[in-house]
Amino acid sequence: MTSPPVGPARSISPARSARPVQSVDRGQQSRRTAGLLALIVALAVACLVSASVGARDLSLGQTWQALVDRGSGQASLVLWESRIPRTLTGLVVGPALGACGALIQAYTRNPLADPGILGVNAGAVLGVTLGIGVLGISAAAGYVWFAFVGALVATLVVYVLGSRGGGASPERVTLAGVALGAVLSGIATGIALRDRNVFTATRFWGVGSLASSDISQTWTLVPFVVLGLVLALLLSRSLNALALGDDLGRSLGARVGTVRVLTVVAVTLLAGGATAIAGPIAFVGLMVPHAVRWVTGPDQRWIIPTSMVAGAVLLLVSDVLARVVLPSGEVRVGLVTAVVGAPVLIALVRRRQLSAL
């Protein structure tokens, strides 16, 4: 009895086996693109609402008419003298805070990292306070350098303190940042309370506000923020490699030392520039990258640009809430981001497990 001939083994086509992976990649890419486009649309709506809502609400028709025909009417005066400068300031500060938070979280591999929590904003505030109180500098072009130095020193001190005794763990870095931030904030507050001129110059700016910013000073600081944003985008691919560890990152071609130095430079430009413009605004840099990461995944090439747009949306919406939350007057946007942001982050964490960095 002869056995039946055995035919050649049926091989699995590489193209066929790759289809599920390609399908997953396409699905992830589509979700990222859709999320970014949705945020861009939300940003356009937030800009329109920011221009229309305030102590005196403007209808969409009034807002559009004042935009296309800049006259001397009350609506045009409110729009061009207050609403548009405030909205433009949010479009500068929001992306800076969102990108800065994403950079710090990627750099430290610490999901709790944020310019406010790690004391970077407090360092910038102390630098500006010293510039105003000690040297009498009142122009943003002058005291921004003090903000940069303060942010840089705070970043380096926190990382050194958090790295002692067995490496930089997220918990140790966070505790070092909170402690240093409290000390620096206390020093800045003490200087402001001893000098009436410093107190007057920083009382609104010190809690974070888009309304207290002079648009001419904002334009002076825009180049620094833009440079920081460009650096953040250029570093995104290398930060993906560093997320795997320094040794594996080097094997993938990343220059670890250069990437770390440039990341610190970008964080300094973004945190220092945003703080010099609007004061310390908390929580944007912490919440935005977390929320964005649930849509984009752990890829920094998508996290950083999406965080820029999401940061602008969050800040503008918070600023609108700051204008209408009280029946008369308004609160500072820094207070709104802290009050609104914390429960939102808690709800998001409870709803879905955080993605790995």
From TrEMBL:
GO terms for biological process: siderophore-iron import into cell. CDD domains: TM_ABC_iron-siderophores_like. Its main location: membrane. The keyword Glycoprotein does not apply. The chain crosses the membrane at residues 36-55, 84-104, 116-137, 143-161, 173-193, 219-240, 302-325, 331-349. It holds the Pfam family FecCD. Keywords: Cell membrane, Membrane, Transmembrane, Transmembrane helix, Transport. It is found in: Cell membrane. It is a multi-pass membrane protein. GO terms for molecular function: transmembrane transporter activity. GO terms for cellular component: plasma membrane. Residues 1-27 are annotated as: Disordered. InterPro entries: ABC_BtuC-like (IPR037294), ABC_transptr_permease_BtuC (IPR000522). PANTHER family: FE(3+) DICITRATE TRANSPORT SYSTEM PERMEASE PROTEIN FECC-RELATED, FERRIC ENTEROBACTIN TRANSPORT SYSTEM PERMEASE PROTEIN. Belongs to the binding-protein-dependent transport system permease family. FecCD subfamily. This is Iron complex transport system permease protein. It comes from Quadrisphaera granulorum.
